[in-house]
Amino acid sequence: MADWVQNLMDSMGYVGILLLMILENIFPPIPSELIMPSAGFAASRGDLNLPLVILVGTAGSVLGTLPLYYLGRAFGEEKLVAWADKYGKWLTLSGKDIRKADDWFDRHGTKAVLFGRLVPGIRSLLSLPAGMSEMPMAKFLIYSSIGSAVWASILAGAGYLLGENYDRVEQYVGPASKVILAVVVVAAVVWFVRRKKAQGQG
Question: What's the pTM value of the predicted model, to 2 decimals?
Answer without folding.
Answer: 0.73
